[in-house]
Every structure is written in C-alpha cells, then in structure tokens.
Here is the input.
Amino acid sequence: MPNVMIRKNDAGDLLFYVAKKDMEETISSVEMDTPETWGGDVVLTDGSRWYIDPISPPPTFPTTLRFKRGDE
Amino acid sequence: MATLTREETQNLIQEVLEVYPDKAKKDRAKHLAVNDQSIEQSKKCIISNRKSQPGVMTVRGCAYAGSKGVVWGPIKDMVHISHGPVGCGAYSRAGRRNYYVGHTGVNTFGTMNFTSDFQEKDIVFGGDKKLAKLITEINELFPLVKGISVQSECPIGLIGDDIEAVSKKMGKELDKPIVPVRCEGFRGVSQSLGHHIANDAIRDWVIGNRDGDTSFETTKYDVAVIGDYNIGGDAWASRILLEEMGLRVVAQWSGDGTLSEMELTPKVKLNLIHCYRSMNYISRFMEEKYGVPWMEYNFFGPTKIAESLRKIAAFFDETIQANAEKVIEKYTAEYEAIIAKYRPRLEGKKVMLYVGGLRPRHVIGAYEDLGMEVVGTGYEFAHNDDYDRTIKEMGDATLLYDDVTGYEFEEFVKKVKPDLIGSGIKEKYIFQKMGVPFRQMHSWDYSGPYHGYDGFAIFARDMDMTVNNPCWKSMQAPWQKPAEGEAEAVAASA
Here is the structure.
C-alpha cells in the first residue's frame, strides 16, 4: 500500500507518482470520476492496476493518497 | 569519423560488453542503450538508479555527498556539521565552488568545515554529548549563525546515535533551527538518495517554520529559483534575467541561499526548477501543501534560454510576457556576436558527456547553438524520469550510458572518437593523456558561470579554448613523429 502523490501535468492528465519507487505514470482511467466521488479501480498507462476506496467529495489535486495494488 | 548508425552503435555496445563475465554483462547491458527518439518511456530501453556492480570503476558519490555537498552545503548562513570522522567534511569542503556573498566566519560559513571529528571513544560510547557540546560552541563562536544542520556520516547510523533528540533539545535551548539529516553515506545506491533525504529534512524542519506568519509582503510576481547551486556564479547569471523580466526572486535554493529565503519559499507564486533531480521532491511537496506550481527551465544557451523565458512568462500576465521578449531582444546582438565568433571554430565537433544531475541533457542546447553535436550522454545517478527527458533532447542513434564504468567509457571514446569530452575530475586526466580535449563539467573546470546569456559567452570561450588548444597537436614527441617524406622512405626500406 504505497503512498501515491497524484498531480496534474501540463496537459491536464493525472500523474501517479511514487517517490521511493521511482515511478511516475499517467493514469489512463479511473473507475469513478464524477463531481461526487473519485476512486475505485485505477489503470495506468503501463497497464498496472491499482485500487482506492472511492472518496467523496473528490480530492483536490495535487494530493497524497494511499493505494492498494489492484491484483491483491 | 562520421556519426555512427544504429547498428554500429549497437555493435559497439556489444563489443564493449564482451569482456565482462556473464552475470555482469547481463546487468551492464541494461544500462547501455542506443537512443531512439520514438520511445516515450525510458524504462523500455535503459535501467537506472541501480546498485553499481562490484569490481567495476564507478564515479558515484554517497548519500552524504548528496545532502551535505549538494543540497545543504551552499546554504550560506547556516553551519553544516559533518557529524562523524573528519575526512568526509574535509573532502567535501568548498570543492563545488558554490559562490556566495558575505563575510566568511562572521555571517556566512560556506567554505568552512565544521566536524565533530569522531574518535574511537565516540564510536564506543556514542557521540551525542559531543554533538550537543559542538552545537553550543558553534553558537558561542559564531553568534550570527542562523541555524545548524547535522549531516550524518556513516558511523552515526551504524552506532545508532539519536541526533534528532539532541537537535530538538539544542534547538529549544538556542532558539535556532537545528536540523538533523539522516544522510549516512551507506544509504541508497548513489548521491541521489541523499538529495531526497535532504529534501525531506527541509520539508520536516524548515518549510513550515513561517506558516502562520503573514508579515512577509508578497507580490504577484514572486518566484523562487530552485536547484541552482551558484557554481561559479550560475544563479546570479540566471537571477538577473528573471529580475529584468520584472519578476521578484524571493529565494535561491541553495546557491547563495539563506535559511530565511527557504522559509519564505512557500509564499511565492511559482517555483522554477533548474536541477530537477535534486530538488523535485521539495517542489512536489510545496505544490501539494501550499499550491505553489513548479516548472522546469533551462538556462544553457540562447535557444533554450529564450524558450524558458517565454515559458516562465506564460505563467504571468502580459507585462511580464512583453518584458520577456524585451529581455531576449536586448541580449540578441550579444549572443549573436558570440555565435558568429565561435561557431566557425567549433562547427561539427562531436561531444560526449558523462555528468550528473541536469547537465547531461540541459547543456545539449548550448552545444547545438555552437554547431556542436552531442553524440553520447549519460548520468551518474539519474532515475527513469531523467532519461525520459533526455531521449527527446538527444539525436537518434546516439549513445546513452547510465552509471558508466571506467572501462566502458574509455572504450566508447576510443571508438566514437569525440572532439570533446565533458565529465568529472576523475575522468579528466585519463582522457587528456589519451589526447582527447576535456572539460570538467561538474564545476565548469574552475570557470563559469555557464547559465544565462552572460554564462553562454564564457561557455563558448571555454569550449573553444579547449577544443582548439594547440597542445592537442603536440601529443606525440617530436622524435617519434615521422618527418616530412620520411614516412614513405621508412615504408619503402622495410
């Protein structure tokens, strides 16, 4: 369960950044991305899947959240 | 020699790898690559930030070097204690030429060496008491010191000293920030983790110090220059451009920087990052906690400077944007004259780089402005994100080498035959003896600044005087040189 910093890049995409793992990936899809909730299954451009319990109201980015690996 | 094709470069890598045992070969192969601009993510072609192979020569530093030598060391009004045996402090003292203004030993301490000078008894009985005494002494001898950082050397972590407790206690006693930094040299694979630890220490002990304080008057044009260590005056050459644009530079991190500048940084409107590798962590933190956006810029060579100035100006209103154009215009005649003077002397020369931090990609633009071509580049301690940024800057089918070993670098140079190498002091004399012009690009070979328009003039001059130095024609002793016409005679008689 790494701490992940989510921030927007210049193009407006969300970036998934794990400092100690030296990992910065773009998020390709989020299960729930509505004005009320944000979260669920998150898929990155490298194909890896992560999970976070849906948060409502959605967090303001950048922020640090705790994710679970999707395949656990 | 013409530029190598993709196959030739690939073959060259294979050839160089031949000497290694199988296991080492497999590992080193991942660190060497042929650049392919179509690749979006560097991790598909090159692996970085891994432990060096035992038995090869590497030029990497340690976590202490990353923290004391790079991030903390240049902060001029603090004393940085090299906590542990005396050597680490002595060898990292002032070697990087982080220039600053002030009276050394009175209100600034940049080139001084403070160490707790551990002896056997300190290892056996612990050094906490010594540290407390040392901090009291520093405060008595140098009352104008604004804060003290405790830079741990290896033994501190090994014997388990509690420097945090001492720092907290002494901080209260002296009413000054005392920052414990857990940057023991054995942490991580290179100095890169030291940067991270130093950033985390700044985050925990410095950044929040003035959170409730609104006495600092901000303007809408406040910026901070982050990751410029003022090597040979770099930060000053950058700062004047920003100020001419109408921006107010509140803080310089950390070349010629002060503790209060760092404390004020969360109040700026934009963080400008020059060395992404060593300071991105704190910028990300400030973005998250204080909502200060950050952007990378590049002040090497007129093309990149103009690009960066426009990019910075785009964050602000039209007056700043107009000013940016004025600044570029003001210096146009100056840099065009430099290019006109040096380009004909340097056109088409090939350069190989092997440095750290930001230089392997940032200086490419400056070389291109002079008509030179960078045919190989590599980092000592980069991560994936650095190579992501490098791939776009480098030409197709050029060499990329991560944490290159002494052997590999020499072989590459023998085959690629560059006209200039830019690397560190450990490589300098080897390549000069091989007859290849060389610049020490860590601290600009004791020259500088190289940032900004002023720096570009010095950069161009330095490259010219190195590449076109007459000594490279005298590498062979006169009696070993065949005289005119003699070569044919010898060949005929043999």
Q: What stands out?
A: The longest helix of chain B spans residues 318-346.
